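Q: What structure does this chain adopt?
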Amino acid sequence: MNKEIALTPEGQQKLEDELHFLETVKRREVGERIKEAKEFGDISENSEYDDAKNEQAMVETRILEVNQILAHATIIVSPKKNDKVVLGSKVELRDADGEIHLYRVVGSAEADPAADKISNESPVGQAIMGRKKGDSVPVSLPSGKVLEYTIVSIHH
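A:
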């Protein structure tokens, strides 16, 4: 992973908190589970031991991933005075049916569509980056369909 990753300060803090939890609390919990499972005897047919070892592998993999993300992250602070959509902007969009959508544009490591955080690399994110309030923005979806949005407001 040599790709530079854009993070908001909030995204950086969330990853640092997750890393701290994994390295302190979760590692200890998994270590205890492994220790308890070993006490059951023969580990070759011990499903508790296998489950704990699998969880340990997942925890260690996630610790490595988070460390990599943080090591290659560029922290983006959106300017207070900007009339364009930039990383960190909260953008209100109106679709062709008049429905309003509110999104926060974040880097791919922070994207969470269920929480209305869209990646700057997503079709909508790419289309609105650098645009201004009032702009009509066509968004090309991977399916080939094109949606039309109007930028109603931009907040930083």
